[in-house]
Description:
Layout: H1 4-19, H2 25-42, E1 46-49, E2 52-55, E3 59-64, H3 70-80, H4 82-100, E4 123-124, H5 129-140, E5 147-151, H6 154-157, H7 160-172, E6 193-199, H8 202-206, H9 208-225, E7 227-231, H10 246-260, E8 264-267, H11 269-288, H12 292-299, H13 301-314, E9 319-320, H14 322-334
Parallel strand pairs: 1-8, 3-6, 3-7, 4-5, 5-6, 8-9
Antiparallel strand pairs: 1-2
Helix pairs in contact: 1-2, 1-3, 2-3, 2-13, 7-9, 11-12, 11-14, 13-14
Amino acid sequence: MDLLNPLVGELQKKIGAKSRIVVDKEIIRNSFLFVASSLAGLHRIKYKNGGTSQYVNFFGITFAKSGGGKDISLFASEDMFWEFVRDYPFIARHRFVELNGPTPEGDKANEELNYIVPKQYKLALRGSLEGMMRVANFYDRTDIGSLNVVSTEFGAEFNQETMVLLMQLWQSAKADGSVNVNQKYDPVSDVPTNVLLFGSPIPFKSNIKKHESLVEMIHSGFARRTFFIWNETSGEQLFEGEWNPDWLNEYTKNFVSYLENKKIIEFDKSAHETLEQYLYLAFEMYNENKTLVNDMRKTGLEKVERLAALLGLVNMADEVTSEHVEKAIEINEES
């Protein structure tokens, strides 16, 4: 049973009841999957597919005009998990103390420390590269928690160096610690990373250098990691209807309980075979027609694999099945 569409539908009703507008389901889906993967990151949940083992991470970019509902879709998703998200920093700090002793305070906190104790579960993209590395170092010194990065104004906050670091962390959960020529932080060896970026396309349309930098990044790795949404029509239709919170509340309670008892989710044979077929098709199309789109599809298999694992978690499944892979492929092709 695919729970993703009903979940997104319920969140759409919740947003509509609050804001009185109909927000596009794809925007809501990106927000929901980011929050769900952040909760999975708190427990360091991994997936296994054959010989590979990776973190269940999500990396999404939503381009939409002002009033499209980007921010409120994230807020609604966070509300859904509010108790858990609110406790996220406390849980991470408690685990840090268990492993490393009390966190320093006062002047001592500024002496040779390469980490910042996070105050909430997510980090703003507009923060410095150094700050991002220091937060990552905090999570690296625990065995729970993930670096969860959000931007609500991606066009204004776009920084090529920061995006390279985030792509590297998403791919491998590792970073060498370099932030500039003169400064190096402790290497990050094991930090799952989730990214959700919202923004208008206008800054990239109006600034040729920024546009060229974004295109260069898409060619060099964004495409095979990121789920893109481009929407220029959301938020114009008025919402008419009611929302009953019982369904979402019950799901949230069950999902949090499921995550607390889960450490790994495995791909069953049918899921593995479906991915193999998709890979074969991608190579076949790539060989016949060497276009950029086909290159993105060929090199983006891990993105589909991770999304399939996330969908398995969202469905609270025992294993990732071919149905989860097929849904992940559908979303990837839309992207």
